[in-house]
Amino acid sequence: MSQKTIWKSLAVLFIVALLASACGPKTEEAKEIVFGVILVGPYNDHGWSEAHYEAGRYVEEKLPGAKMIYLDKMNSADRPETTLEQQVDDMVAQGAQIILTTSDDFQDDTDVVAAKYPEVVFINISGDHALDEGSPKNLGNYMGQAEFMKAIAGCNAAMATETGHIGYLGPLINNETRRLVNAAYLGARYCYANYRGKDPNDLKFTVTWIGFWFNIPGVTLDPTEAANDLFNAGVDVIMSGIDTTEATVVTKQRADQGQRVFAVPYDYRNACEVAPQVCLGVPYFNWGPGYLQMITQVRDGTWKKHWTWAPPDWKDINNRDTSAAGYVYGPATTAEWKAKVDDYIGYLAQKGWGGLFVGPLNWQDGTPWLAAGEVATEEAIWNSPQLLEGIVGPSK
What CA–CA distances, in Å, run from 138 to 5, 105, 143, 231, 290? Predict the structure, then answer.
């Protein structure tokens, strides 16, 4: 069976399971379910990990009898002597029936614990090992299609820039981070050309990778220094792809010195609160609906192995109960810019991937990817091997 066929089969199984859990018999008495969440960073990082923590609280609010247990800072810097397996052992001992591991860094270890505890469901966020033939039957993957939101954020950045130079503060380099950068770049190019009336080939888009999802002193580049270097190179809008707030903090510092600069943080819906006066908006994941569906299925005994790349709800991308990803505007976005970005959102809602990953497109090394008018498959987007031609910064 081809990988493409497996993708489609798993998606169908997941949708059928959702319908079954939604239409099944209701009971007056709440069934108890304990779920575990393992976070790579602090639960209050105002980024990736806090968004997952809030999703757990959302489930507790929406699903009677649900109880979250969580561990944060599961990384080599904060817990050098702790293994994921040790934490899973503890959560299983506390009665966890489903455990969500919220980083692709946890993929391999999640496979190990899924094999060790076949009676517990394991969901690895952002990974794809559930697609592998022979992977544990109690393993699932879940991810939101934040690529669209990154494109919207790129559009917003393109509306704001006066220097024509957008910077991107990236974490580590992998398929996920490459496709998110590519989406941001494509959104910026589209809006620079179609709403600003400028040559998209004149738009500069530079990415600096720090080496991990957040700063680890002595291991990663210092994100504060990296952000300042981007501004020193002529960037006037900086987009963040890391889990923490350094890009926004540095932008505020620059603005306080009288510079016209803007920031686009990432991951956490309320990230503009760090520096509202420079914040254009936030592309973010909304994990709550997906968490609720999967945990409800486990409680009801209807969960099936799946790989899910959940789309936004184009009727309302900021609907807390339905959309897997969203974009909220910040105070720094003018009404004029917002009107153009809103128009772009409508375009994406109509076209889907055909409004974003559509040819002609080449990879960064000049290799052709998509011919004119050709739309990329989801599999090709997911497995992006390089940055796109026109982006400055390494692909590997």
Answer: 20, 19, 17, 47, 17
| Measured distance CA(318)–CA(48) in Å, rounded | 17
Question: pTM, whole model, 2 decimals?
Answer: 0.89
Question: Tokens 């699903």, residue?
Answer: 63
List pLDDT tens digits, range 15-74: 445 445 545 444 446 789 999 999 999 999 888 999 999 999 999 999 999 999 999 999
Nearest to 378 by CA among 361, 356, 363: 356
Q: What is the DSSP string of 132-176?
A: STT--TTEEEEEE-THHHHHHHHHHHHHH-SSSEEEEEE-S-SHH
Instruction: Report the alpha-carbon distance of residue 341 to residue 347 in Å, rounded.
Output: 10
CATH number for 3-144+287-310: choose from 3.40.50.2300, 3.30.390.50, 3.30.1390.20, 3.20.20.220.
Answer: 3.40.50.2300
